[in-house]
Design goal:
Layout: H1 3-22, H2 29-74, H3 86-90, H4 122-155, E1 185-189, E2 195-199, E3 206-210, E4 214-218, E5 224-230, E6 235-238, E7 247-249, E8 253-257, E9 269-281, E10 290-295, E11 299-302
Helix pairs in contact: 1-2
């Protein structure tokens, strides 16, 4: 209802009231005038009430919308259906989680490394350094002792194939019936500590030989206590010999005692095993030899 119509009805209602008062509208005029004026007043009231409700609803929507926006700005993001279409275009609110300034409030997703620094007492550090230095020196000493032992064993003749047969401090397990194969070589020792190497079965032999035979001296306990080894470490290649040819080993020898065993004195009568470590070759042109040990039967000798 517009303002002009509202005014027209108001004027019409006023005129009808005046006409009814003067009796110009007939006997039913008062009732008709009452209906007209009541309807006009009711419609005016409804019009104003509807306008008030519309305004109130609009104001409430604004208030509610503002509150919703403020809540979205301050509330943490929650999982929900994704916005699509115009909703996303009309309202886009981005929330950012501030970086924690206190390490204690950070998410506990791994080991903490922000604790107080650990300090090592000076005394403990010095002790650790001294211990490491002592360990290194002990290792150096052990290495030096091992080198000395290897050199001593080489001097004692343990670097040859006979090392496993005549080992210092151990009994000799070889017998005259179980001597190792010497590839056709035979050894025979004499009382003057010289020895002879010969071939067997009318065979020609080729070998590289030392200057003298060695002797493994056996103590009263049945173990090897010392050795007689050659003075000269030179080795001689013997080729093209005739069958059963003898090669004499007449070089000088000297005593080398075993560690931890009683000393062997010159002139002492002892039991010893004569042996020769040699390399045997297939023929005169061969350059690759087979290491062998030729052993004679044990005998009593006089220590030089």
């Amino acid at each position: 209802m517009t303002d002009d119509l509202d005014d027209l009805l108001a004027d019409l209602a006023a005129a009808a009231t005046r006409a009814a008062a003067h009796g110009t509208l007939g006997g039913e005029a008062p009732a008709a005038v009452h209906r007209i004026t009541a309807r006009v007043r009711r419609r005016r009231a409804v019009r104003h009430t509807g306008q008030g409700v519309a305004v109130a609803c609009a104001a409430g929507a604004l208030v509610a919308g503002g509150a919703q926006v403020r809540g979205a700005m301050h509330a943490p993001p929650t999982a929900g259906p994704a916005q699509t279409g115009s909703d996303v275009d009309d309202l886009r609110i981005d929330t950012f989680a501030p970086a924690p300034s206190d390490p204690g409030t950070a998410a506990d997703d791994g080991p903490r490394t922000d604790g107080p620094a650990t300090t090592v007492p000076p005394g403990a550090l010095a002790s650790a350094v001294a211990s490491a230095k002592a360990d290194a020196e002990a290792q150096d000493r052990a290495a030096a002792e091992e080198r000395a032992r290897v050199e001593r064993e080489l001097r004692l003749g343990l670097g040859d194939p006979a090392a496993a047969i005549f080992r210092c401090g151990e009994p000799v397990h070889t017998t005259i019936h179980s001597r190792p194969d010497a590839n056709g070589l035979l050894l025979a020792a004499d009382d003057d500590l010289t020895a002879q190497v010969t071939g067997i079965a009318q065979l020609t032999w080729h070998a590289e030989l030392p200057t003298a035979a060695r002797y493994a001296i056996v103590g009263t306990d049945g173990t090897v206590v010392a050795r007689l080894v050659e003075d000269d470490a030179t080795r001689t290649r013997v080729d093209g010999t005739r069958p059963e040819q003898t090669y004499r080993l007449a070089g000088g020898v000297h005593v080398v005692g075993c560690e931890g065993k009683p000393d062997v004195t010159p002139g002492e009568k002892v039991v010893a095993w004569p042996y020769v470590s040699a390399d045997v070759y297939k023929d005169a042109s061969s350059t690759t030899g087979t290491p062998v040990v030729a052993i004679a039967e044990p005998r009593e000798i006089t220590v030089p």
